[in-house]
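Predict both folds.
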Amino acid sequence: MPTQPVQTRTVRVPTADGRADAFAAFPDGGDRHPGVLMYADGFGIRPVLREMARELAGHGYYVLVPNYFYRHGPAPVIELPEYIGEEARPAVFAQVMPLIQAHTTERVLSDADAYLGFLAAQPEVAAGPVAVTGYCIGGLLAMRTAAAHPGQVAAVAVFHGPVSADGLAGLTAQVHLGHAEGDLTPEALGELNQALDAAGVAYTSEIYPGTVHGFTMSDTDSFNPAALQRHWDRLLPLLDRALAGGRGPGREATG
């Protein structure tokens, strides 16, 4: 996959409740590029998320990865092992779950306003719509953000995240849902897709074969390299279709 040289920086996003630290990655060269808001999984900003953001930025996007648990401190909010295997999971989840439970819908939507406003104000970000992508619990945040900003979010992609039919109201973005085989039965997938049809959403929604929850994350024992590649094969063409109008000079078309 051809990529461009990328700059990265840590930024602070003003919110109603303070300042959220975030990781930003964007192409070198001074051009303006479409914005992508990337919600991490519950384990938060860490090397694997920074690498994914850099990879996406190399295809011509300004990628913002916020620490959505910023109310509890800067990232890393909890101490993580380099590799999150079966033995480490119980202790990690014991720390993460209270943070997830405290992150109410009201907080999600308030923060989404701030993140999208920050993106729109960056000199490296092109005018026009943005995309939102999310992993695991970040997928729920992505869907809520897209539904709350129908005129601003043109694409939303969710990977191994909780998606339900009751979160589709107001959604106008193009959608891709990449489900883990361990998360969703074919029957449940059919019901969800029927709800997407009824909502009039333009979407692709599929179970990635042989996967369990968390399949994109290379620092966990859920990682599936083939499914990560499938994730890029779905995500890049979706963003190219939805955000092509915001392309700056020199951006490679993908898909």
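Second protein follows, with its predicted structure tokens after the sequence.
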Amino acid sequence: MSIVYEGNVIWAQVDANMHLRHSAYADFAAQARIAMLNNLGLDFKTFQHLKLGPILFREELRYLREVGINDSIKIESVLTKARPDGSRWSIRHELYRGDGVKAAIINVEGAWMDLMKRKLAALPEDFAQRFMTLPQAEDFVLEA
């Protein structure tokens, strides 16, 4: 099982070759993560209140097929790795075109940042428990 985000490719997201520009894949994956966190009750207002925010250490995109303007996309997201307290995590996004063809795989590694101290932080325990309920990949790794 995975969390699904759906959207459409708009004019501003295509390049001179009339297909989805490289950075738009990352934008769609980021929006999928924001929607996923929002579903857990971790919306922007909550992050502002907690003075925390998600950060990325690494983002890797693997392009498999072209995606064109006005095409619908679907992104399936799963947790691939996490510490038991959810303080560090990895998420895999698989982006599919409207015809069901897998077009890209986006892997990210991240954590949480205390926005006042500008240092890594952990989620409060109740939110950490919610975060760890995200759908996990078949190859999920629980780090020590």
